[in-house]
Amino acid sequence: MTIEALISEVTPPLRANDTVEHAIGLLLEFRVLHLPVVTDDGYLVGVISENQLLDAPGPESVIEGLLSLEPISVLPETHIFDATKVIVDHTLTTLPVASASGKYVGLVKRNRIFEQFARMLSTQERGAIIALEVDQRDYSLAQLAYHIEQNDVRILSTATEHPAVSGNPIVDGRIKVTLKLNVSDTARVRHILEHYGYRVIACFSDDQDDDEFRDRIQEFMRYLEV
Q: What kind of architecture, by CATH, is found in domain 123-224?
């Protein structure tokens, strides 16, 4: 999926000759901390942040004078994964989209990207979630899927986190894998995975009662804080 499909048709950019007061008003109105800045002929010249505006000399200052860095943007055909990396790397709440020539196309709000990820990960589908670990040298998605699907269970989505991302010295050398399954009862799947050397960290089911679900969440959070 490309980022062009998520462009907001509501949130406007700022103009280079807008005042700080006007810019802050738009940030508040659209509940974001960043907005792209364009010229009168529609070219992207930068991204302004709330902090930059608050540090301005006064409310009537023109925002063009506050821009210092090259404008951050992605092309319309950028994949959502690559666009997410740009947002995370630059801690943005909106991501400008521009053509190769710098012509402004639109912006994508961070929450729209995360909503799309939620759909891609089947979070709205009924079923259980299993979080597990496996040694990096032993990890094979095809093999993992085979162990699970031979039990008439289907994987709805998969997410992995490598040791370099987790930064947790206790699990260095091990990959964290989170699976969304199309069943609620995971007892058989857990048994199979543990038999093949996977460490099951936590399981969550939409059939659990509230107290059991809270207990499992707390147990999982304690693990993440180790």
A: 2-Layer Sandwich (3.30)
